[in-house]
Amino acid sequence: MPLLALTVNAREVALEASREASLLHVLRNDLALNGPKYGCGLGQCGACTVWVDGVAARACVIPAHGVAGRSITTLEGLGSRERWHPVQQAFEQAQAAQCGYCLNGMVMQAAALLAREPHPGEERIRDELSGNLCRCGTHVEIMKAVQAAAALTAQDDPA
Ligand code: FES
């Protein structure tokens, strides 16, 4: 199998991966990074969201070799055990999960939004998360969490 080199969570990795392997497959099966989830496998639910060079992307439909040499960030690389990302803090404080399957995508998508736009309004947040599906119906808590995270982020980046 061809060699694949990536930077994952600020660490350079090299491994053998088939030409057909998705980025999600490589992250979960070869690198044991299970933050990103397999939901639909079609790019439609957002459960597998990671960042590619800082941009939120659906890892299930990205060929791993298509992002060779790029920088990938997964949920595991967003914060650390000692210092959570503000979005992670806010989701925990708002208890914005039931089954938790969508959480990876919600957190990664929201964190990408706040990195670009530290002061999004409610409509902007709704629009950004509209492609991330939650089957439990935890949307009210998720909105509260992202708004709280925006407030935390704004403390570090006042307008
Ligand atoms: Fe990738 Fe659903 S698993 S978008």
Shape, principal axes of CA atoms: globular
The helix/strand class is: alpha+beta
SS strand fraction: 5-15%
Query: Based on DSSP secondary structure assignment, what is the total number of beta strands?
Result: 5
- Uncertain runs are none
What would the average pLDDT be, to the nearest integer? 95
Ligands, ions, cofactors: FE2/S2 (inorganic) cluster
Structure description:
The protein has 159 residues and is an alpha+beta fold. It has 2 domains: 3-78, Roll (Ubiquitin-like (UB roll)), CATH 3.10.20.30; 86-156, Orthogonal Bundle (DNA polymerase, domain 1), CATH 1.10.150.120. It is built from 6 helices and 5 strands, in the order E-E-H-E-E-E-H-H-H-H-H. A hairpin with a 2-residue loop joins strand 3 (49-52) and strand 4. The longest helix has 18 residues, at 139-156. The mean pLDDT is 95. The structure holds FE2/S2 (inorganic) cluster (FES). FE2/S2 (inorganic) cluster binds at residues 38-41, 43-48, 58, 60. FE2/S2 (inorganic) cluster binds next to loops.
Write the layout of secondary structure elements.
Layout: E1 3-8, E2 11-16, H1 23-30, E3 49-52, E4 55-58, E5 71-73, H2 75-78, H3 86-94, H4 103-116, H5 122-129, H6 139-156
Parallel strand pairs: 1-5
Antiparallel strand pairs: 1-2, 3-4, 3-5
List keywords for this structure.
5 strands; 2 domains; DNA polymerase, domain 1; five-stranded mixed beta sheet; globular; 6 helices; Ubiquitin-like (UB roll); single chain
